[in-house]
Design a protein that fits this description.
single chain; 356 residues; alpha/beta; 2 domains; five-stranded mixed sheet; 11 helices
Length: 356
């Protein structure tokens, strides 16, 4: 039976069959739920417990999930939510110019750190939001990641710091990061062993819920994860030009003039409406507002002409100002305002248009 939202405890609806406390998935935002041709697997790659897999109709999470929050931090569409680790306490973490975070597996030495299931719950947007409020030093206390029962392949804090540095470099803001490994009283490697013996770390396929399927293409949305990053950078820049012209954190599509068939499917399915197709009596054009692009790649995945690819946005000064680019423009020459198909006839059949 599907778990419904409970009054007062902040829990979100979960996929049917999942236990309370596991990440909830918003199918309207999840790219795999929105369209079966999406190749997004950010949550699968981020999950250290291998508890997430792409299933028919969307994404499924098993009860092997350790609730670390890595998938929440990795999802470009902010489709995952962990009720046990919401954003608000993270954004109130600052004490003066310092924000402190502690992994729940680390031994406590002070009471002023925000307790997280894992530091991989953090992302560049949360760090930059704190930086725009004056935080300049971030202190992370972790457990012994190498022996963590969550089986993280590497120190999650290193990835968080790397992404945060990339974001801060755009504004030229100097941030200081301090890390400390403080193992819990019980050795984490032994704890993981005991957990496996007692059956607490379950088979990754056990207890999976059935993904909720959509029957129509949902309306577009722009996740706060992206708009918040843009606002934080503009706040840090205070009207100055960005220190970098491009960054891996900002991408946008480019369209091949020769390959594009002007079908508009890329714009029609863009989850954030970053792509817009305009068809007038005199011209057909596709425009893009890179500030809205979340780099999900759905436009590329869905294009049956292979006319779309993603590149780093350039220049960032235009992106942060919300300017729009024209990616494709074709004049209409015929008297009836139509355009001729320029591809091969054999390419027309079997076009997977709106099969969600």
């Amino acid at each position: 039976m599907e778990e419904k939202e409970k009054e007062g405890n902040g829990e979100k609806p979960l996929i049917p069959g999942l236990q309370p406390g596991l990440p909830g998935i918003d199918p309207v935002r999840c790219l795999r739920h929105r369209h079966k041709l999406s190749g997004c697997n950010a949550c699968v790659r981020a999950c250290p417990a291998r508890a997430i897999r792409v299933a028919e109709g969307g994404v499924a999470i098993s009860d092997a999930c350790t609730k670390c929050g890595a998938c929440v931090g990795a999802c470009p569409a902010a489709a995952l939510d962990l009720a046990t680790s919401p954003d608000d306490p993270i954004l109130s973490a600052a004490s003066g110019d310092t924000a402190r975070f502690r992994c729940e597996k680390a031994k406590a030495d002070t009471d002023d750190a925000v307790l997280l299931p894992c530091v991989s719950r953090l992302d560049a947007t949360l760090i930059l939001k704190l930086a725009s409020d004056g935080v300049r030093k971030f202190v992370f206390t972790t457990g012994r990641c190498a022996g963590c029962p969550r089986r993280s392949p590497s120190r999650p804090v290193d990835a968080v710091i790397r992404e945060a540095r990339e974001a801060a470099a755009i504004s030229g803001t100097a941030l200081e990061f301090e890390t400390e490994e403080r193992a819990s009283a019980l050795d984490l490697g032994k704890r993981a062993l005991f957990g496996r013996i007692l059956g607490r770390i379950k088979d990754p396929q056990a207890g999976e819920g059935k993904p909720e399927e959509l029957t129509a293409l949902p309306p577009p949305f722009i996740p706060e994860k992206k708009t918040g990053l843009v606002r934080a950078l503009n706040s840090l820049l205070s009207g100055k030009e960005p220190a970098l012209s491009r960054s891996p954190l900002f991408t946008e599509p480019v369209i091949s003039e020769e390959a594009c068939s002007a079908c508009s499917i890329c714009a029609d399915t863009c989850p954030t409406a970053a792509l817009v197709a305009e068809d007038t009596e005199t011209a057909y054009r596709i425009t893009c507002e890179p500030a809205k692009c979340i780099g999900c790649g759905l436009c590329r995945d869905i294009c049956f002409m292979h006319a779309v690819k993603l590149v780093e946005s350039d220049p960032l000064s235009s992106v942060l100002k919300g300017k729009t680019k024209t990616l494709l423009e074709r004049k209409k020459d015929s008297g009836d305002g139509s355009m001729e198909w320029t591809g091969e006839p054999g390419q027309i059949p079997d076009i997977p248009v709106y099969d969600t």
